[in-house]
């Protein structure tokens, strides 16, 4: 606000004091030069006292009778008005008859405007209001063309003269003769008078007043208006009707007679005669091309507006953008001033605004640079005072270089320290064994380590940045409620550390730890998530639990039954026959043996190394179907191979374990299929996997039971089934599939049978 106030005061001061007048003049002169107009059909014609006329009529000044003859010829062509812009001495005792002839011509024309100058003394030659010729003219006008202090004529005043005796400018007087109603009430320009102390040749101060200032909108350089030579009019060689309905200005254009002016429209053609300056003024008044200075309040308002816009823009833009914006505002200010001149005939002075823009950008840049470097110096000092993980080098203010150079060197020290700290944090994070993510309050990932990139299959840790942790961890779900562990609601909760047991889409067991990250002022800034893979530990725990369950329940039940039978036979040998006793003992012993075998096979599938080799799955499936012939034949069940089944499906597998897994699926289907039904088998292609499909026509499995049928000791018992195992068969299938990089699926509904699929990855380079 302070910088903006200073810049605005600078603009106001420059506008009010006119300090940048010359740059404004250069721009305004450029606009005038660019606004040339075609005046070939203009109502204004110049009759020129040129070099050719002087050569024909003799040296200047000419006799008044010559001027009288010219006026008579012009009057005969019925012009609207004649501005006789030639100074005439107040008396000529040697040519009384010539004076009478000129006065008669003036009276007879009735359209003559004579120039008058309100100076004292004998130089320059003047026509005083008491001269007889004044009474003969229709009007008189003040023929005064003021030049600026740089010698260029840019403006005129439509009303000017001694206080209390102001009169029309010569061009305005000519216009009033030709069109008496034009400007009868209001004149262009400001009516407020300007006091001016003028020093005439006599040295006496005159109390001068002027008003209705206009900037002359020159139509073009010297010679732009149509000129007709004085001698041609006098000789009668000009076609009749040339001056009819025109405003005729008679004046000198010969360089030897002087009266030449430098104007904004001046070019290589030379200086502009005063009579042509009056022609430009008259033409602009006729066609309303006159230009006035923009009011001070409007000009200042435009200049200050762009400066205020610059400060608003610089408050939100980057330095390069702010520089471009400043240049664009400066260009826009010039364009606005040009539009004001062309469209609204108002002349603006934009130099103060452009200087204000430059000052604003300079001050703002300095302020931002100074504030930034001072902040970095203070922040670095704070880092040195509070650093515990990295040694911060002491920042010394260098004595060499200017202020900016010293600040840059200090900035380099702080930047180097920040890089060191960042590298330390990055290395520490990357060396963590667990996948770690640092995100903002809304879940946008800001940092990730190499372990996280590996876990999420990303090319690098940087590839995870700016992603949403909610989307990234959508499949990491809590074991308790099967809901994602990272949700918008969980991120918005009170920042407390905790841990959640979870499982991902790859069926890995995870311990997801989360802790809030706080800013230096203790505000909640985001979250730190760590995903610890505890699959091996959970697997070992489950295997331990399975062993305890097996020893304490499943394997114990047949052994207990055998002990009970032995006790019963010892106390009451007649309770059952010897054959019955032996049959029951054998049945329980075989059951215990089958349970032990199943448990051992499951343990081997889980922990022992596999013997991987390339095998053709259709051949393996056919072998398994043949091995199960006795079981399904005894139950009057038919096992068929689908004709659409693939004949070549190669996978890299442990043959014995996969064969046993298929056996388990077939055995499961046979146990739960009613007599006379059919079990369908096939090898199917699913993307990058081959699938062994086993489909039965049994009673199916309820939806609420399907999620647990692959767990150990979970039996898929249902109506009509003949299941009498420990629930290890499907658990074995799932384990074998997982260790081969595949999976097992179940599709079933009550009363519609079951469809099991064992998915195994295709061997690289194999063909169907």
Distance between the termini: 77 Å
Strand line-up of the largest beta sheet? 4-3-2-10-1-9
Low-confidence stretches: 120-130, 717-724
**Rounded radius of gyration (Å):** 55 Å
Based on secondary structure, the structural category is alpha/beta
Strand proportion, as a percent range, falls in 15-25%
> Taking all residues together, what is the mean pLDDT?
80
The largest sheet, given as strand count, sense and whether it forms a barrel, is: 6 strands, parallel
| Helical coverage, percent range | 40-55%
Helix count equals: 24
The best one-word shape is: rod-shaped
Count of β-strands: 27
Helix-strand layout with pairing:
Blueprint lengths: L1 H16 L3 H14 L9 E6 L1 H7 L6 H13 L4 E5 L10 H14 L2 E5 L15 H5 L2 E4 L12 E8 L2 E4 L1 H9 L15 E5 L7 E10 L11 E3 H6 L11 E6 L7 E2 L10 E2 H13 L5 E2 L2 H19 L4 H26 L1 E2 L3 H36 L16 H28 L4 E6 L4 E4 L1 H6 L13 H4 L4 E2 L9 H4 L6 E6 L5 E10 L5 E10 L1 H20 L1 H16 L6 H30 L4 E5 H11 L1 H6 L3 E4 L8 E5 H17 L6 E9 L2 E7 L7 H4 L22 H11 L3 E6 L5 E8 L7
Parallel strand pairs: 1-9, 1-10, 2-3, 2-10, 3-4, 13-14, 22-24
Antiparallel strand pairs: 5-6, 5-8, 7-8, 11-12, 15-16, 15-20, 17-18, 18-19, 19-20, 21-23, 24-25, 25-27, 26-27
Helix pairs in contact: 1-10, 1-12, 4-5, 7-9, 10-11, 10-12, 11-12, 12-13, 17-19, 18-19, 19-24, 20-22, 22-24
Q: What does this entry show, briefly?
A:
With 768 residues, the protein is of the alpha/beta class. It has a six-stranded parallel sheet with strand order 4-3-2-10-1-9, sandwiched between helices. The protein has a six-stranded antiparallel sheet with strand order 16-15-20-19-18-17. A five-stranded mixed sheet has the order 22-24-25-27-26. Mean pLDDT is 80; it is low at 120-130 and 717-724.
């Amino acid at each position: 606000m302070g910088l903006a106030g200073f810049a605005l005061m600078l603009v106001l001061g420059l506008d009010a004091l006119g300090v940048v007048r010359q740059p404004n003049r250069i721009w305004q002169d450029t606009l005038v030069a660019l606004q040339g107009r075609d005046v070939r059909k203009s109502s204004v014609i110049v009759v020129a006292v040129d070099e050719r006329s002087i050569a024909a009529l003799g040296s200047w000044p000419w006799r008044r009778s010559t001027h009288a003859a010219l006026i008579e010829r012009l009057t005969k062509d019925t012009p609207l008005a004649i501005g006789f812009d030639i100074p005439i001495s107040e008396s000529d005792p040697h040519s009384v008859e010539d004076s009478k002839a000129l006065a008669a011509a003036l009276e007879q024309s009735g359209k003559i405007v004579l120039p008058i100058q309100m100076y004292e003394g004998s130089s320059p030659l003047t026509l005083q209001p008491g001269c007889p010729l004044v009474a003969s003219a229709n009007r008189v006008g003040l023929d005064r063309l003021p030049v600026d202090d740089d010698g260029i004529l840019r403006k005129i005043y439509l009303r000017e003269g001694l206080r209390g005796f102001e009169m029309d400018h010569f061009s305005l007087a000519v216009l009033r003769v030709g069109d008496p109603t034009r400007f009868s009430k209001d004149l262009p320009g400001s009516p407020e008078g300007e006091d001016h102390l003028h020093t005439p040749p006599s040295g006496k101060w005159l109390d001068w007043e002027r008003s209705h200032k206009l900037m002359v909108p020159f139509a073009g350089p010297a010679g732009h208006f149509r000129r007709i030579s004085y001698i041609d009019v006098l000789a009668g060689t000009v076609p009749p009707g040339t001056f009819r309905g025109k405003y005729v200005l008679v004046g000198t254009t010969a360089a030897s007679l002087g009266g030449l002016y430098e104007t904004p429209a001046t070019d290589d053609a030379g200086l502009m005669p005063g009579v042509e300056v009056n022609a430009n003024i008259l033409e602009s008044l006729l066609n309303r091309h006159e230009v006035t200075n923009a009011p001070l309040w409007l000009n200042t308002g435009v200049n200050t507006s762009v400066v205020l816009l610059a400060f608003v823009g610089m408050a939100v833009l980057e330095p390069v953008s702010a520089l471009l914006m400043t240049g664009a505002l400066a260009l826009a200010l010039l364009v606005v001033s040009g539009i004001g001149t062309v469209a609204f005939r108002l002349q603006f002075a934009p130099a103060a605004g452009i200087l204000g823009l430059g000052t604003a950008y300079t001050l703002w840049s300095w302020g931002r640079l100074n504030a930034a470097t001072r902040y970095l110096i203070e922040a670095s000092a704070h880092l040195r005072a509070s650093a515990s993980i990295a040694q911060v080098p002491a920042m010394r203010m260098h004595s060499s270089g200017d202020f900016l150079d010293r600040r840059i060197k200090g900035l380099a020290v702080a930047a180097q320290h920040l890089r060191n700290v960042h590298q330390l944090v990055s290395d520490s994070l990357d060396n963590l064994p667990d996948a770690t993510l640092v995100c903002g309050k809304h879940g946008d990932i800001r940092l990730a380590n190499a372990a996280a990139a590996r876990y999420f299959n990303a090319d690098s840790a940087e590839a995870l940045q700016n992603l949403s942790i909610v989307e990234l961890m959508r499949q990491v779900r809590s074991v308790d409620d099967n809901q994602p562990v990272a949700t918008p609601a969980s991120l918005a909760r009170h920042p407390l550390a905790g841990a959640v047991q979870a499982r991902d889409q790859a069926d890995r067991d995870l311990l997801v730890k989360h802790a809030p990250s706080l800013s230096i002022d203790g505000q909640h800034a985001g979250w730190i998530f760590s995903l610890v893979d505890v699959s091996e530990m959970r697997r070992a725990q489950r295997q331990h639990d399975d062993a305890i369950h097996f020893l304490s329940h499943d394997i114990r039940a047949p052994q207990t039954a055998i002990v009970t039978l032995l006790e019963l036979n010892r106390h009451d040998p007649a309770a059952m026959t010897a054959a019955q006793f032996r049959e029951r003992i054998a049945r329980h012993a075989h059951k215990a043996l089958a349970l032990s075998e199943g448990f051992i096979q499951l343990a081997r599938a889980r922990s022992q190394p596999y013997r991987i080799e390339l095998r053709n799955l259709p051949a393996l499936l056919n072998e398994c179907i043949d091995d199960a012939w006795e079981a399904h034949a005894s139950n009057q069940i038919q096992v068929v191979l689908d004709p659409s089944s693939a004949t070549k499906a190669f996978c890299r597998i442990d043959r014995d374990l996969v064969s046993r897994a298929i056996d388990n699926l077939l055995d499961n289907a046979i146990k739960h299929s009613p007599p006379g039904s059919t079990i369908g088998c096939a090898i199917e292609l699913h993307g990058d996997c081959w699938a062994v499909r086993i489909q039965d026509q049994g009673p199916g499995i309820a939806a609420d039971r399907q999620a647990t049928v692959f767990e150990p000791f979970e039996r898929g018992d249902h109506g009509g089934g003949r299941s009498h195992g420990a629930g290890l068969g499907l658990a074995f299938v799932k384990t074998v599939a997982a260790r081969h990089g595949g999976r097992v699926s179940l599709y079933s509904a009550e009363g519609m049978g079951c469809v099991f699929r064992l998915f195994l990855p295709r061997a690289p380079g194999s063909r169907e």
